[in-house]
Specification:
10 strands, Rossmann fold, about 20% strand, UspA, about 290 residues, Universal_stress_UspA, coiled coil, elongated, 2 domains, ten-stranded mixed sheet
Length: about 290
Amino acid sequence: MASSAELGNNAGTIVIFTDFSDAALSAANYAAALAGQLNASRLLICYSEHIPTTMEMHSQSIRLIEQEHQRHLEQLKTLKDELQTCLNKRIVIETYIDQRPLDEIVKSYNEDQSAELVVMGIAGKNRLERTFIGSNTIHVARITAIPLLIVPEHTMFRTIEKVVFACDLKKVSKTTPALTIKHMVNRLGAKLSILNVDHNEERFNPDTIAEMTDLHQLWDNEQPEYHYTDNEDIAKGVMDFADEHQMQMVIAVPKAYGFFESLFHSSLTRKLAYHIHLPLLLFKEEKPK
């Protein structure tokens, strides 16, 4: 079993975290299709087989663990074989089991930059709390420094032709990872729209005009379409816009404050699953210098 420290540079590498749930398998299939559009060279499928050290070990439990390990190896092989049938032969698929907790695995990728994209699934609202990958996807969204693509369950891949970047108007020039987002959008060859959702101008303040100027300075060279819409529920406003304009992907930058904070607040985790029915691509905010 390889560790992430041995996986080399990030050129064209997409990491898929799985738990073999329906949501995770759906995400893996989506990632495989996306790999073709991104011209990726490798898919790396990882399963975290972490066992708490507090767990009491005896001969019977050891045997069960060994059986489970073998079953997971077989599941990874089956998944690899299924994905390989629909992939270009030049795209390599590798699988591995990691004994560390998921957050430690993610942090190791943050440190060695051995992937350009992480893909995870998320289940619908009736299954979110019952699906391991669902709650862990939200957790990974908070800690990953690598772009994270969250794929809702049952999402069928469609060529990414139009994407919408949902942004707030707070510290735009200092916190937006514009170069990273531009690079990904250009790799996709997609048309970019930029959206701000407000309600009765509640978030409008004396700094807003300056922030809008900064927004245009960051993005005008990409020739995006700018949109401003009114909705009391930000997440619903984003998704309504995406549906109306036939977007294939939503881009966002979760922050400790501002536009998407409610989506990643622990008490409102379900809200993400309720509203997001398109792939959601998250980028780490830049820290103000």
